[in-house]
Amino acid sequence: MTLMQTTSLKPQTTSLKPQKVENRNASVSTSIEKMFEAGAHYGYGKSRRHPSVSSYIYATKNNSDIIDLEKTSVMLEEAMEFVKNLGAQNKIILFVGTKPEARDIIKNEASNLNMPYVNIRWIGGTLSNFTEIKKRITELEKYNKESVEGGLEKYTKKERVVMAKKMEKLSKYYGGLISLKKTPDALFVIDPKAEHIAATEAKKSDVPVVALVNSDSNIKDINYPIVGNDSGILSIKFFTASIADAYKKGSMSLSVKEK
């Protein structure tokens, strides 16, 4: 057994190869423990399993897949290294998660990084037709600016009511994209199966995708898949925070270089 005892499903770390190991072993062990506590090992029913994920399943219990967190930790490390490099280059990551469980987490972590996000609904063309999307964002920005500076007074009361309703809708779907001035350099996605339009647009636009995927997803077209529970709030929070922290570390290294 490499990760869990089938009786308790308690995580175990295997011995990594000699040298360089104690700190790394401790780090890997801690990471796996945190994932386990967050319920990251819970997959879906075996009947929903996508073949591309089979090698990442440790066992099946009560007809539900148990994800091999040792392998997940390796995938997470690779994704974090990629994101860390993005941070070191001041690149833009678009955070995407419209599932109810993910919405607040995606918004909070992206906002803390001053990164754009989509947490209500992915609008078709966000990547493939960004020129048109940018027009909506610009319109929303203009309205927000006029609202703050008193520029709306030039409109009649009826016009302001109509504009307010329109801007409320624009804000709902585009509010998280105001900081997006160009096509993003990467996407971080919670459940690319649910966000298949976003994932497809990213592939067509050559935008790398980092994604938290559960056992029902096809990971073949995801640049940096992280196989884990993509429906549990604690699990989503753990992985999203890990990606955000990796970006922060990269940004810190950029700040040091600039000094």
Can you put this structure into words, describing what you see?
This protein has 259 residues and is an alpha/beta fold. The chain has two domains: 151 residues, Glucose-6-phosphate isomerase like protein, domain 1 (Rossmann fold); 48 residues. It is built from seven helices and eight strands; from the N terminus they run αβββαβαβααβαββα. The strands form two sheets. It has a five-stranded parallel β-sheet, sandwiched between helices. A three-stranded antiparallel β-sheet has the order 1-3-2, with no helix packed on it. Strand 2 and strand 3 form a beta hairpin. The protein is globular and about 65 Å long. 36% of the residues are buried. The N terminus is likely disordered.
Helices, strands, pairings?
Blueprint: H1 22-37, E1 42-45, E2 57-61, E3 64-67, H2 69-88, E4 93-96, H3 103-112, E5 117-118, H4 130-149, H5 157-174, E6 186-190, H6 196-204, E7 209-213, E8 224-227, H7 233-258
Helix pairs in contact: 1-2, 2-7, 3-7, 4-5
What structural class is derived from the secondary structure elements? alpha/beta
Uncertain residue ranges: 1-8, 10-21
What is the global morphology?
globular
For this structure, the CATH topology of the largest domain is Rossmann fold
Overall CATH class of the largest domain: Alpha Beta
CATH architecture of the largest domain: 3-Layer(aba) Sandwich
Q: N- to C-terminal separation?
A: 48 Å
Number of strands: 8
Number of domains in the coordinates? 2
Output the radius of gyration.
Answer: 21 Å
